[in-house]
Design a protein that fits this description.
The protein has 402 residues and is an alpha+beta fold. It contains nine helices and 17 strands. Strands 2-1-6-7-8-9-10 form a seven-stranded antiparallel sheet.
């Protein structure tokens, strides 16, 4: 599970910023929201970000897309290929300063216990200035590898506990271009290093899905021919009160690129008989299509013990459908995690659905610098049902200046 992520000089976040999934001491709805990964460390499955337009909400989600591309799926063929990130650009200094990142996560072992890791990364321009991985086999971290960049050359030090041959060390170093991760280089060599293999495989699954935006196309890796997956999707759509009885692949999708799927509608005619009609995807409401997409993604996340980030989760969806989706995720998931942005303040009144430590806010100052802060910073909040009114009144900031 992801415990926290810290970033600095990344898009609109100039200063060091941390988003944490660590739960507070509240025992409310622990059964559905909280996973205990080690003694006195409990992590949340759900994170919610509120804020005005252009306050930085979407930029928080971009950090996950950055890690997915840089750490997991990016294929580099040239040492001059650009690294997919942008430093803060609204002053004269930040664009020339390094961008810094760290992510703390827990990987479950075969014995059911979780092992904590922490990954550090510093970028400047198109170069990895520093990169390291720590593993917590005890209270004190073990440095698995440590990379530095001097005079145009990357130097990598590996922990003696890895017991690597000189040939393997040299091969990783040679393949580790200045603009890629050590994990990318490791995937290019013919060797199996247990700890790197475990971390690489876990994060490839955990961060495999792209950030979902209102305009994203349907994910091609979701297999609508899988009966189990189709049943899951149809169950969600039916719960959403759509009269759709089946979804199938459109064999003419090559000639109709915006209509990859066919939706079968069931109606009851005047003679009380069931009649079925098929429509192309581009003839469906945006809400139907969005519910279809989100339910497919949620299925993938739960199947792969993954992490999913959704921008404007309420886009094209009725508020009650958003609440239903969250209830379904919380009930069906084990240690999977969902982070989303929203303008739907009705969730703040749902005291049986969300916890105070789920909620974060973004706000942008006069210098154009975004700030991220948790609801738990505000004291004296005795009932979550009072939060919606307090938010509307601007008690927490993170609302438009109208």
């Amino acid at each position: 599970m992801i415990a926290e992520i810290t970033f600095k000089n990344f898009f609109s976040f100039r200063d060091e910023t941390t988003l944490s999934f660590e739960a507070d001491n509240d025992t409310d709805m622990q059964q559905f929201h909280v996973v205990e990964v080690e003694q006195d460390v409990k992590l949340l499955k759900l994170g919610i970000i509120y804020g005005a337009n252009a306050s930085g909400k979407s930029n928080v989600l971009k950090i996950w897309e950055f890690f997915r591309l840089f750490f997991i799926s990016r294929e580099v063929v040239d040492k001059n290929d650009a690294i997919p990130y942008m430093p803060f650009r609204l002053d004269e200094n930040s664009k020339n300063q390094p961008s810094e990142f760290s992510i703390t996560f827990y990987i479950p072992g075969q014995n059911g216990k979780y092992l904590r890791y922490k990954y550090f990364l510093i970028l400047q321009g198109n170069t990895v200035v520093s990169e390291s991985l720590q593993a917590y086999f005890s209270n004190q971290p073990t440095v698995v590898f440590e990379r530095s960049y001097h005079h145009g050359i990357s130097t990598i030090k590996f922990s003696p506990k890895l017991k690597l041959s000189t040939a393997v060390k040299d091969e990783i170093t040679i393949k580790c271009l200045p603009n890629i991760s050590i994990f990318s280089a490791y995937r290019r060599i013919n060797a199996n290093i247990t700890i790197l293999e475990e971390v690489n495989n876990y994060l490839q699954k955990k961060l495999s899905l792209p950030v979902i935006t209102p305009t994203i196309v349907f994910p091609q890796h979701i297999d609508i021919n899988s009966q189990q997956q189709k049943e899951n999707i149809l169950q969600f759509i039916n719960e959403a009160d759509f009269n759709i009885s089946d979804i199938s692949k459109n064999e003419d999708a090559e000639t109709l690129p915006d209509s990859s799927y066919l939706y079968t509608h069931k109606i009851i005619n005047k003679q009380n008989n069931a009649v079925y009609y098929k429509f192309h995807e581009n003839m469906e409401s945006s809400g139907t299509v969005q519910a279809f997409r989100l339910s497919g993604y949620i299925y993938e996340v739960i199947k792969n013990n993954g992490f999913i980030a959704v921008d404007e989760i309420e886009s094209s969806l009725h508020p009650k459908l958003v609440e239903f989706l969250l209830i379904k995720f919380l009930k069906d998931s084990d240690s999977e995690q969902l982070l989303f942005t929203t303008h739907y303040d009705g969730l703040l009144a749902e005291e049986d659905l969300v916890r105070k430590d789920n909620i974060w806010f973004t706000e942008k100052g006069k210098e154009g610098v975004s700030e991220l802060y948790p609801l738990t910073d505000f004291k004296g909040l005795s009932r979550i049902s009072s939060l919606q009114k307090a938010y509307k009144l601007g008690k927490f900031g993170a609302i438009p200046n109208i």
